[in-house]
Amino acid sequence: MAVPTLIRRLLGKHRSPRNDACIAQFFAQKAQQQGYTLSAGQTRAIAAMARETAHLLAGHATRSLYLHGPVGRGKSWLLDGFFQALPLAEKQRVHFHDFFARLHQGMFQHREQHDALGATLDNLLADCRVLCFDEFHVHDIGDAMLISRLFKALFQRGMLVLVTSNYPPEGLLPNPLYHQRFKPVIDLIAARMDVLEVSSPQDFRSLPQAHATQRFTAGRYVWPGTAAQRAALDLPVTQGPAQHLQVGNRQLLCRHHQARTIAFTFADLCEELTAVMDYLLLCEAFDHWIIDGLPRLAQCPIAVQQRFINLVDVLYDRDKHLILIGNEPLADCLAGQAIDLARTASRLSQLQQTDPQPLPDPVS
User: Fold this and answer.
1) Lowest mean pLDDT among 2-11, 36-45, 51-60, 208-217
2) What string of DSSP letters covers 160-217?
3) Which one has a higher pLDDT value, 302 or 11?
4) Same domain, 194 and 89
5) Is the pTM of this model over 0.85?
6) Are residue 232 and residue 312 in the same domain, yes or no?
7) Could you tell me the keywords of this UniProt record (predicted)?
């Protein structure tokens, strides 16, 4: 069955020729242009997005959408396409790390007000009617309590929220010590959102056409970082003394910075007490990143692993060019215990691989 025909059937009685067709046709054309075959889960999600777009533009009540599934199955591709095709100016597309960093920052600034969350959302989401929230996950009980208040506030404002996540709602905050305290949010998601699984037997990020448009995928993974490899890529020296770099109100360590290029060691960014807001501020100043000395993550504390995961998330979402230098093959380095490492591995697998040069044959 042709993709547009299947989408039209799934739209059913909610179909509106004017309002939902723009979403369905956009995705059909986008998939065709990029050489993708839409999975059944993607097609159901497109039908749901088209249906809710029709309701929104007609002034009717909407149900928010929660898309979940394994890494690389096209959830962010769907979210970005929906955001692009939605014929509405009052919309925002945000990433989990970016949004929560700014949410915490805003609530601190408004801490003297009776409703610090409401005042912060007034600033962050002024006039917003549709919020596209990418890479949603919850592992920290502090964030979990804030998310509970956040979701209630968004729904009270009548906002259409589109969420993507690697986790089904019942898989959020998996720590058994805290999961039950998050149950009210899971129930709220079930009551106010359509939960749709986006699955496919293939990781779309592994396809050649996924590499055509991103600066991130033009980057490299280099191991073991020999002098010859570094010279071939014209990389700056990172083994020298650290330099102090002012980032916001903090001082971080780096090894080199010039124009829009910045170089760090893994220890500079992940073994020090850095935070997501640091990475976001650095992304405003630098487009080309060099991170040297990726170890075996399994040998690192969980907090160090999580900083690296957060860093890769930010660099990927901001589409920065990355050269990552490791001591061993990438798959060996990425073995670890942190929960979201599968997403990190999927993203880093898109980097071009620079392997060690083979040794010359021995002279007989």
Assistant:
1) 2-11
2) EEEEEESS-GGGSS--TTTGGGGHHHHHHHHHHEEEEE---SS-GGGSGGGGSS-SGG
3) 302
4) yes
5) no
6) yes
7) ATP-binding, Cell cycle, Cell division, Nucleotide-binding
